[in-house]
Protein: CN hydrolase domain-containing protein
Organism: Solanum tuberosum
Amino acid sequence: MEASFKPEEARVPAALPLPTPPVTKATFSLFLLHFYIFDYNSYQVAKFGHFLLHFYFKIALCQLSVTTDKERNIAHAQQAIQDAADKGAQLILLPEIWNSPYSNDSFPVYAEDIDAGGDASPSTRMLSEVSRSRKITIIGGSIPERSGDKLYNSCCVFGTDGKLLAKHRKIHLFDIDIPGKMTFKESRTLTAGERPTIVDTEVGRIGIGICYDIRFQELAAIYAARGAHLLCYPGAFNMTTGPLHWELLQRARAADCQLYVATCSPARDGGSSYVAWGHSTLVGPFGEVFVTTEHEETTLMAEIDYSVIEQRSFFLLKIEKFPVALAGPTLVGALLCYWGEHGPTSLPFSHEHTMLYLF
Amino acid sequence: MEASFKPEEARVPAALPLPTPPVTKATFSLFLLHFYIFDYNSYQVAKFGHFLLHFYFKIALCQLSVTTDKERNIAHAQQAIQDAADKGAQLILLPEIWNSPYSNDSFPVYAEDIDAGGDASPSTRMLSEVSRSRKITIIGGSIPERSGDKLYNSCCVFGTDGKLLAKHRKIHLFDIDIPGKMTFKESRTLTAGERPTIVDTEVGRIGIGICYDIRFQELAAIYAARGAHLLCYPGAFNMTTGPLHWELLQRARAADCQLYVATCSPARDGGSSYVAWGHSTLVGPFGEVFVTTEHEETTLMAEIDYSVIEQRSFFLLKIEKFPVALAGPTLVGALLCYWGEHGPTSLPFSHEHTMLYLF
């Protein structure tokens, strides 16, 4: 059964190969060790060669306090980033809307023209300078972006050379309307982004979402299908949605997609019009919470080891090995398209051989 | 913006309309009440008319002990079903493999020819008789099924007239292989099913999965896109995967798809070769655990109210109202197909207007 299994033909469109980030602190485990433990086949041999690569790096989640003073917010974020870099962080994740209060009144006032750069965008200029000077990768939370006559909620990613690698505009705007209780409609001022953002960095392939984007499993599935190692969601869930779903959604995305998920919230300010839940978190590819916090200002440091993703793929071979699962996130659409044409009874599934390895 | 939003064109293939199950204990809330609370638009008016329908019924999850005595297992299940019906249950969910020990040695011995019926399948004959005599719907957990020279892990659904409404064959077989520790490969004896199973019953539209099927979010997404109210997963997670993922997966499926999820495990038998986790559970459309248990034999009773799904759709209008979300589970495939052809930068998202209503 295994011999007839051709993973390269099982996923349409073909998945991008996993990038091989530069190894900063690598250890090599002899393949023989794994051969001893697991029942390998030629697919694994071909995939991993004779070594399992361990790639470690430190991530910092900067759960920043945010004030009405933009210059203070920028200087404050810069200090937090530098402190984290001093402690060895190679990847920094900032909160959603960290340079401005989270309000429709503030967005137009605090918005910056990111594409113009320079004085038109002091927030991203700072991020660029710090990433270059410290040789770190920064997922710059989000800030209000002005582009022509539109405003976006945008996350900028800077590489170790200070260059802007990617810009994600929040796709799914967050509107809440409880008459007499709470009303917040991002769509009053903001325009929604139009595409997913996946970016190759020196610390792996990263998919970006902002806050409410995390509710859409299909976005995470797209990133997984494209070989992401890590999903980063700057996000300010509130005091209702936070306790209900913040951790659940992170763990679900991580476990379903078998990759790391990092989130970063602003610290809670009980006096602001929109009160953030906090609880920035790093979740591993088994849905395990590696590090989390309450709502106060803090910087969380944690180590990420992408070899865990590969190990977990051995142990719980859901995505990488099964023909059905290999179709993975593409399966839904393929099935529904087929189903739509041919009716539910004609739906073809293929299943060859499932292997679940566990500790 | 709202005026240009045509939900009927936003999902391809078109979603099936929600079925309207017979109302056994219905209350009607004046639309005006909801109008008072929420900011309705013509879409909601068209969808719900002037009434919000409350549809309540009781579900029973029979976490049965299973022995090597098949006749005892059948009589035991029958008694549990009758007891639950006596207490008002209109829908009964049984565990995965409830008439046989969970082992490859047992599957061929205990397997029944469901299609032949009668003496060839005493387990399903009992289910049919009880469902008819008590006028209840039964999601019959699963039993080993013999069909020609193949064996399947199959779940039979019986309507209130005793007729077999659907039969789901487990799609994703569960194989575990830890040399020297634990080995179990369903695929040694079983053949995988080839299609999803969604069934209209007198207690709503129900999507069926068996155990490992729950790991595949795309299967749940298919059911959600087809208008399911409830997903039922008979399942015997084990002592490793149970504490890791059993609850997480149920809550994730429910919250992501905004529907009810019910699971039913066999009771734990520490002396068996495969030790089940137990913890049968009912989860609501917000990912909230309504009722759960430990590992002992028990029957859980809970009330399901499908109007909660609609209410939650008002409060967290993720699936029903957003153009992006309306494409819903079909989005992944559509996007990936498009992305595959045109590259990641050409991916078209549409976003009109998001509205989140919360309590």
Q: What stands out?
A: The domain at 55-307 of chain B is CATH 3.60.110.10 (Nitrilase/N-carbamoyl-D-aminoacid amidohydrolase). The two ends of chain B are 25 Å apart (CA to CA). Chain B touches chain A through 79 residues (CB under 8 Å). The CA atoms of residues 127 and 140 of chain B lie 7 Å apart.
